[in-house]
Write a structure and sequence with these properties.
The protein is α/β, with parallel strands linked by helices. It is built from 13 helices and 14 strands.
Amino acid sequence: MTRFVRSWLGVAATTATLALGAGQAFAQKEVVFGLQCDRTGPTANVGTVLCPGYQDYIALVNSKGGVEGHKIKVLEIDHEYKVPPAIEAHERFKKEGAVLEGVYGTPQMAALNKKLEEDKILGTSPGFGTAAAADGKRYPYAFPIAASYWSQGGAAVAFAKERLGGNLKGKKIAYIFYDNPAGKEPLAILEDLAKSEGFEMRTFAVPAPGLEMGAQILDITGRFKPDFIISHLFGRSPSVSIKELKGKGFPLSKVVGLVWASAESDIIAAGGWGVAEGYNTIQFAGVGKDFQVIKDIEAMYKAQGKNPPKEMDSTVYYNRGVFIAALHVEALRNAIKAKGGGTPNSEEVKRGMESIKGFTLGGLVPPMEITPADHEGGGWVQIWTVQGGKLVKVKDWFQGYRDVIQKHLAAEASKS
């Protein structure tokens, strides 16, 4: 049981006493959220920052009285990026009465899609999982709630087209990817766009654990000589790619990393901000600390006599944790309001998630609209570039080739 990490946020027990003369007591309304994480496995560099961001946002909400009179209790379980513990985690969440579940990892989401539907508990997979889950009719309890790998691939090509003068005909684009199902997920979109836009695409697979790619980088830079590179790597491999490309003299301004190749930790591990100057990153949540919600979390810590945690400095992953928690809370808020203030069940929270519209959290969240048909929320992303020792936003929220994404979703739906 050592892999189970419980984080009980908010009021853990059940009653509070009111100073109303006779001293009446009432039961504290409470809702349970389930959160999967990897704090000790191969993607712990993400989980040890993202999950604290999630927890801190929930703590902030609880410190302000909760959600419409309800405190939130988070049950976090470290599955070490393994599928069997993720399935065990789901069963624990169900037993504890969780109204929603933050899933962590593409293999874990693939294993849980059917279970979520059978148990009627919504599960979120922001920025990972199967892109087809954007279709809420086919995947009624799976919620990507952020740009899928298809949408990221489309956005990367749109950005490359913009950087290459608005025309990709006759251009060459290399796609270097982690050789697993997640790495292969954008291929359908990239291959489609290569035909319609007239560019030549070659793919370069990097086997796990992604720490050796000298041969692939040499093949890209010495033989293929692309006009642009799209990188879809995870864990410690993004930093290796940055270092290798820099060493071969390839301009990093002509590289864009999908969302798991796009954090401050990747840049630091590659050798620092000077090494990564010009490197472009795709983001599905705001980057940096210039958001009121981040300032509110810092103020919460200071009010407790504590310094804000160091995880907040790694803003890419920390802010994504805040992003996920904020959408979970908004779904709960919508469900409580729809129920007239009562405590909702998981089915009602699912409908609350499908009612999110116009919620941006001061710009940290894109202008998404989640509906029963669209569980992705539109596939919005930003582009941030390494400039002068920091990440600088160079392209605000946009969607890349949304018509192509919809075409592929329709084709997937026709297969069922």
